[in-house]
C-alpha cells in the first residue's frame, strides 16, 4: 500500500477540514491504470494475440470497442509507461483492422510477427 499522504492545509481550531481526496477504486488490489497497462503490454506478444483470436475475443463487438478505447496509450504521457512501445502500439493499431483480427489465427502470421519483433529488438540494441 502506498505510504503517500495527502497534504492538508493547516486549519484554524474549530474549523472543519475538507475530506482528503478519495483513493482510486481498486480491482483485485490494482488500479484501473495498472490493469489496463498490463493488458495493453500483453498485446506486444503475438502468441497472446493468437490466443485472443482462438478464444473468439477478437470477434466480440464489445472487445473490439475496448481495443479502440485503449488507443489512448499511444499518446503522452501514457506511452511513456510502455515497456515495449513499438510492438505494443503496432499490434494495437493492427487489431483495429478486421482482416488482421481474423488472420492472427494463422501460425505463419504469428511467426512473422515474432521474427519482425526480434529483428527490431536486435537492431535497437545494436544502435548506438
List keywords for this structure.
128 residues; mainly alpha; two-stranded antiparallel sheet; Med31_sf; transcription; transcription regulation
Task: Describe the model.
The chain is globular. The N terminus is likely disordered. Strand 1 and strand 2 form a beta hairpin. A two-stranded antiparallel sheet has the order 1-2. It has a single domain, classed as Orthogonal Bundle (Arc Repressor Mutant, subunit A), CATH 1.10.10.1340. Helix 2 runs antiparallel to helix 6. The protein is mainly α and 128 residues long. It has 6 helices and 2 strands, in the order E-E-H-H-H-H-H-H.
Structural domain tally:
1
Terminal Cα separation, in Å?
A: 39 Å
**Oligomeric form of this entry?**
single chain
Percent in helix: 40-55%
Organism: Cephalotrichum gorgonifer
Pfam family, one: Med31
Region (Disordered): 1-23
Keywords: Activator, Nucleus, Transcription, Transcription regulation
Structure described in brief:
The chain is mainly α and 128 residues long.
What's the structural blueprint in terms of helices and strands?
Layout: E1 26-27, E2 30-31, H1 32-42, H2 46-54, H3 61-69, H4 85-94, H5 98-103, H6 107-126
Helix pairs in contact: 2-6
Amino acid at each position: 500500500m502506498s505510504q503517500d499522504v495527502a497534504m492538508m492545509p493547516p486549519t484554524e481550531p474549530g474549523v472543519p477540514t475538507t475530506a482528503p481526496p478519495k483513493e482510486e477504486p481498486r480491482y483485485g488490489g490494482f488500479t484501473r491504470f495498472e490493469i489496463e497497462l498490463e493488458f495493453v503490454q500483453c498485446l506486444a506478444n503475438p502468441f497472446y494475440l493468437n490466443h485472443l483470436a482462438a478464444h473468439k475475443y477478437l470477434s466480440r463487438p464489445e472487445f473490439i470497442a475496448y481495443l479502440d478505447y485503449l488507443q489512448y496509450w499511444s499518446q503522452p504521457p501514457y506511452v511513456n509507461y510502455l515497456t515495449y512501445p513499438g510492438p505494443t502500439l503496432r499490434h494495437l493499431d493492427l487489431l483495429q483492422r478486421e482482416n488482421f483480427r481474423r488472420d492472427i489465427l494463422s501460425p505463419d502470421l504469428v511467426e512473422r510477427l515474432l521474427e519482425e519483433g526480434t529483428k527490431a529488438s536486435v537492431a535497437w540494441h545494436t544502435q548506438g
